Amino acid sequence: MLNHVSKSFGKGDSQVTALRDIRFSVEEGEYVAIMGESGAGKSTLLNIIATLETATGGQIALNNQDLSKLKEKEKAAFRRQHLGFVFQNFNLLDTFNNRDNIFLPLVLNKVSHKEMEKRLEPLAKELEIEQLLDRYPYEISGGQKQRVAAARALITNPDLLLADEPTGALDSQNTKRLLVLFDRVNRQGQTILMVTHSSQAASYANRTLFIKDGIIYHELYRGDMSQKDYAKKISDSMTVLTAE
Ligand SMILES: Nc1ncnc2c1ncn2[C@@H]1O[C@H](COP(=O)(O)OP(=O)(O)OP(=O)(O)O)[C@@H](O)[C@H]1O
């Protein structure tokens, strides 16, 4: 839940206001996409929810916990325990094999090795990465890397999966595959908030928020629209948004 959230960078004449008076809630089990032109404030918004940046004003709460009140150390623990991240550039560590990359958040949460293996098995099957676990990130393709990154994000059973342009570096086939995967985990109850430039990606979500100049300018629910119609509506809204 975000209430009147604002964010400025810098001071005086060089001050940039990235977000102003942002208000919205994501319900448990929802899949929400955030769209907007470059510089609109999408990544800033995601980073604030991720506790990686601090808002200049307003309140942000996850599960009724006020994130702005957390100290630095508590923020790191909060991220590990409640959030999963998928980034455009995968952010896998080349010095660890894929299995250990996926286990990393659990190691930090001091989960037993047996429990890690138990959680990995169904996830690796679902993501079709079973054959890749002993390889290193530099030995696999971009699409495979993103599926490993998704496993790393999901293995902690996060309350919220945050994805920043997760398909930005993928070809159309791997994009589709990742979106189908996100759709499936959402149907299984995973809450997702995804920043994207792609109407096709956003059309998988239940709701799309459009950001312009740091404010939520428009919102579209999918309802019972077909995915194709919804993608068209999102793309039309983006055209209007960029023209105004
Ligand atoms: N650390 C920072 N210091 C100063 N200004 C910043 C900083 N981070 C972002 N901004 C500014 O805040 C505004 C919003 O940036 P943000 O990265 O959130 O946009 P975005 O919508 O994610 O863009 P893109 O789609 O290009 O990634 C921009 O004007 C940007 O220049």
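^ adenosine-5'-triphosphate complex. The longest strand covers residues 16-24. Residues 8 and 234 are 28 Å apart (CA to CA).
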